[in-house]
Write a structure and sequence with these properties.
The chain is an alpha/beta fold. It contains three helices and four strands, in the order βαββαβα. Bound molecules: NADP nicotinamide-adenine-dinucleotide phosphate. NADP nicotinamide-adenine-dinucleotide phosphate binds next to α3. NADP nicotinamide-adenine-dinucleotide phosphate (NAP) binds next to α3.
Length: 87
């Protein structure tokens, strides 16, 4: 499947991206800072953007079969990125 993953640089997102690639999916990692991805795979697809930017989200979801969302705010457990970003 063609998968788009939000939160790809996070503690859950990184292994999620790697596991999806290992299972043969075509993965696009959505990231604010692609340099943080550090994926040990020859051809990861990357979509640079911020989930609060509707334009970057709309562009990234084009042509995908499914979207996985593991947005978070680190250890703070504060903020609205999970509710607002997912919405
Ligand atoms: N870790 C756990 O043990 C655990 C357990 C249960 C549930 N969860 C839940 O699972 C989710 C992910 O947890 P986590 O520990 O992987 O979180 P995390 O390490 O803080 O990662 C959060 C991810 O969200 C991204 N992000 C935040 N704001 C963004 C924005 N405006 N646009 C694009 N990306 C944005 C971060 O990107 P940047 O790198 O650019 O900041 C990062 O990739 C959370 O909802 C958390 O509550 C986690």
């Amino acid at each position: 499947m063609k998968l788009l993953i939000f939160g790809s640089t996070g503690s859950i997102g990184r292994p999620l991206v790697e596991q999806a690639l290992e299972q043969g999916h075509t993965v696009t990692a959505f990231a604010r800072t692609p340099a943080k991805l550090d994926i040990q795979h020859p051809n990861p697809k990357v979509a640079q953007g911020d989930v609060m930017s509707l334009a970057s989200v709309e562009k990234a979801v084009q042509g995908q079969d499914a979207v996985l969302c593991v947005l978070g705010s680190g250890g703070q457990r504060k903020g609205t990125i999970r509710s607002e970003g997912t919405r």
